[in-house]
Amino acid sequence: MGKIWELLDDPETVLVFDIDGTLISYNYGEYRAHHELDNESTEEEFKGIDIYNGCRGIPVIREFLRGRDLSRVYCLSMEPHEHDASKRKAIHQYYGIAPSHIYLVADHSEKPVVLTQIAKEWGEGVKVVFIDDNSTVLRAVEAQTPFCTAHVSIFFEDRECVITLA
Q1: Under DSSP, is residue 154 helix (H, G, I), strand (E, B) or coil?
Q2: How many domains does the chain have?
Q3: C-alpha to C-alpha distance for 130 and 114, rounded to whole angstroms
Q4: Mean pLDDT score of the chain, rounded to an integer?
Q5: What are φ and ψ of residue 76, in 5° steps?
Q6: Residue 162 domain-assigned (yes or no)
Q7: Which residues are CB-neighbours of 109 under 8 A, at least 6 positions away?
Q8: pLDDT score recorded for residue 2
Q9: Chain centroid to CA 57: how far?
Q10: Higher pLDDT residue, 26 or 117?
Q11: Are strands 102-105 and 128-132 parallel, antiparallel or unpaired?
Q12: Alpha helices in the chain (DSSP H)
């Protein structure tokens, strides 16, 4: 993970974060997590509700981004539930990331394409790290792009800890 942290810490690296479960907790409901939005049988109860109102950013990631050049920070999230405006507002409010740097796609399969578009904006040789909480999406990005990937859990680990297995 040292090489991933080298890229994450490099001020020249372009960082692209997923939103749900990465920049904002999945825990929107009073007694349940956000995953209900992925289940069509309960989707209707969330339409028209600003599920991001009252959410807070993830403190360790807010701290990580503090002092960074936010022109090199993006968000890329799947949003099939018509909460586009709410997501954009929350991400800008909690992290200061420009709304123009927030990309919302209808399906996870679009993420490698959008990442490639973002990289092209910065030119050849740009370093990109994509941070997500979905291992399937991370594997797809790894298979389809040359970019570094990181699971969001990297921010919750002790950077100095090294484990040696016998």
Answers
A1: helix
A2: 1
A3: 11
A4: 83
A5: -145, 115
A6: no
A7: 140
A8: 80
A9: 11
A10: 117
A11: unpaired
A12: 2-9, 59-65, 84-95, 111-122, 135-144
Quick: pLDDT tens for 45-74: 666 667 777 777 889 999 999 999 999 999
Report phi then psi at 20, rounded to 5: -70, 120
Distances in Å between the Cα of 122 and the Cα atoms of 7, 19, 155, 157 are: 16, 22, 25, 30
Q: Which residue is it, tokens 């990937």?
A: 149
Q: Say how many C-beta atoms besides its own lie within 10 A of residue 130's C-beta.
A: 25
The pTM score is 0.84
**pLDDT beyond 90 at 125:** yes
SS3 content of the chain, % helix, strand, coil (to 5): 45, 15, 40
Domain presence at residue 165: no
Q: How many CB atoms lie within 10 A of CB 52?
A: 20
Report yes or no on 42 lying in a domain.
yes
**Bridge partners for 17 per DSSP:** 75, 131
Does the residue 97 lie in any domain? yes
Residue 35 or residue 95, greater confidence: 95
For residue 21, the domain's CATH number is 3.40.50
Whole domain around residue 28: which residue ranges?
2-156
> Are 54 and 46 spatial neighbours (Cβ–Cβ below 8 Å)?
no
Distance in angstroms (rounded) separating the CA atoms of residues 34 and 133:
13
What percent of the chain is modeled with pLDDT above 90? Answer: 54
